[in-house]
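Progress against Task 2.4 (sequence-to-structure conversion) is shown through the following example record, which the project officer requested during the mid-term review.
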Amino acid sequence: MLTQLTPPQIQALTSSLARAKFAPYRRVFGGDTKQASQLFLLDCALAGAFQELLRIIELTMRESMHRELTKTYGGRWMFTKEILNKHGQAIIAKAGRRAGPKAQPGKIIAEIPMGGWVAMLQQGGFSSDEKQRFIDYSETLWDPALCKAFANGAPEQAEVAKIGQRLRHLRNRVAHHESLVFGITQTGMQIGELKVKQRPESAYRDICTIASFMNTDLAAWLSACKDVELILEHPLMVKAQRFSENIPKYCMI
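Structure tokens generated for the chain above:
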């Protein structure tokens, strides 16, 4: 982890980044470029630590959900229009186009993004047919199949859905190289007039929690991976997080 930078390296880093991208790091330290550069690299390390965990969680969720849906509806469950709403069918269709013509179901499954799996945990929505029937996912997906994919501790569908949404925001934040130390924006969520952000340590707890719903041994292993916690304990990260708590327009959860 490159946290000790020489003056030329600091100059190389700051001149390579967009000014707006680097500005929040500078504000934490009153314009001190050296400390801001070190914080930026710590934030990069935090993203890397989260990426390792998210990769495991996303692959595990995909396999667990696909396995239980296959048991209930067969290996071509994704083409059973009666169980998916219009949005769900659009996700499958897009995954099919990415997989290519005549792709086997397994290849289509691999092309469904995390947001697609998280969408299957939500309440449902209207169908794509002319009658615009409401497809209740608790009846078509959760009760007959997906509750078994998250059976440990018998969590409610709503709880798994909320955690899944927060993890989707984290994944997108990491994938688009956005900062994490200042909180993970929860798109579309507000408390009063305040926009909602999730603390990084809370996001790590979500990873461990959803893992525990699927596999207790997996959860124990991920809970023992302390990279995220160790990075967050760095004095510069602690200062940045305290700074974030005092930004008036945000509510940290």
